Amino acid sequence: MKTILVDMDGVLANTNQHFIDYEYQRSGEKILWDNISGLLEEEAFPNFLEDVNTKNFFRTVPVMENAFQGLDYLNKKYNVLIISSATEFPNSLTEKAEWLAEHFPFISWKQMMFCGRKDFIKGDIMIDDHPKNLNIFPGQRVLFSQPHNSNRDVEKATRVTGWDDIINIL
């Protein structure tokens, strides 16, 4: 059975919408998706570092549309590992594990890999929204479209716009 590596933020978790919602609650300013196209998260969201270090930020992120059905489908067909660069933001370790248990109860703690780098994790297929992670991955690459990667391509990657696309290609 093939192993598929699935990123959390920007793939399962709608972190961009969460940043937008946080900024709106804080300042009343509505950040528009069109205005953040091509910008890294640190550039797009003025309070990025404050937000990712806020208690419960990662615990309350909305689920990406159709992610439950898509991940359930993959989990029945592949050896699924959820991978997340979580150690940079220590609050996120527990929060992400709790978030996964709540929203994807079919994912076991044994399928969760929280790390600082993804280059040492082995698998056959990787779904990620950051080109830096896919560029170092030797297997099949799936780039999940997000504003921060709109002007970046990954060699030998299939770009998807959502979970329906993932189900169709895998």
From TrEMBL:
GO BP of this protein: pyrimidine deoxyribonucleotide catabolic process
InterPro entries linked to this entry: 5'(3')-deoxyribonucleotidase, HAD-like_sf, HAD_sf
Lineage: Bacteria, Pseudomonadati, Bacteroidota, Flavobacteriia, Flavobacteriales
Gene Ontology MF terms in the entry: 5'-nucleotidase activity
Active site as annotated: D7, D9
Protein name as catalogued: 5'(3')-deoxyribonucleotidase
PANTHER family for this protein: 5'(3')-DEOXYRIBONUCLEOTIDASE (PTHR16504:SF4)
Xref: Gene3D superfamilies: Deoxyribonucleotidase, domain 2 (1.10.40.40), HAD superfamily/HAD-like (3.40.50.1000)
Similarity annotation: Belongs to the 5'(3')-deoxyribonucleotidase family.
Pfam families named among the record's database cross-references: NT5C
